[in-house]
Amino acid sequence: TLLGDMRVVGLVRNVLQATRFDPQYLTLEITETARISDHNVASSILQELRSIGVRIAMDDFGVGAASYEAFYELPFDEIKIDRLFITNIAIVSSIAAMGREARITVVAEGLENPQDIALLEHVGCQQVQGFAFSRPLSLSNLLEYQDFTSDSAIANMV
């Protein structure tokens, strides 16, 4: 519903300025795209958010209201394939091909088996996220990960 009101851009801009948070590290996830009543207005809002450096992701693609129409009409930087599809590599491969064609990042959500990372990368997922890396953490526990040595498995962790 926020994608029908341009004031959301000012809100995000004000928060970024007040916190001095670098917008390149902020990705806003958009879900339930069927609730977007006017794709032209939503597209303008998303373009404005992108112009201040914020990335935009279509979350939970493949379930609910995250549709192909919204994918093609709205300016997304990444698409997050819902965890329900991660076990069907043919579907993941098709969605990843669509993402490559649109030149956006493809993220596989809900990865539970670390051995599947290579397969997901092979079919075109640039990033993966899920319990294979960690269960949800508190901020203090997350900060402990700063000391990890970066390797290929951790480098693409979302």
Give the helix tally: 7
Radius of gyration: 16 Å
Number of strands: 5
The shape is: globular
Q: Report the sheet-strand fraction.
A: 5-15%
Low-confidence stretches: none
- What would the average pLDDT be, to the nearest integer? 85
- List the helices and strands in order: HEHEHEHEHEHH
Spatial separation of the terminal alpha carbons? 26 Å
Please state how the strands of the largest beta sheet are arranged side by side: 1-2-3-4-5
- Specify the helix fraction band: 25-40%
Structure summary:
The protein has about 160 residues and is an alpha/beta fold.
Describe the structure.
- With 158 residues, this protein is α/β, with parallel strands linked by helices.
- 39% of the residues lie in helices and 13% in strands.
- Strands 1-2-3-4-5 form a five-stranded parallel β-sheet.
- It is globular, with a radius of gyration of 16 Å.
- The mean pLDDT is 85.
Which structural traits does this protein have?
158 residues; single chain; 5-stranded parallel β-sheet; 7 helices; alpha/beta
Write the layout of secondary structure elements.
Elements: H1 7-19, E1 27-30, H2 39-51, E2 55-61, H3 68-73, E3 78-81, H4 89-101, E4 105-108, H5 117-122, E5 127-128, H6 139-144, H7 152-155
Helix pairs in contact: 1-2
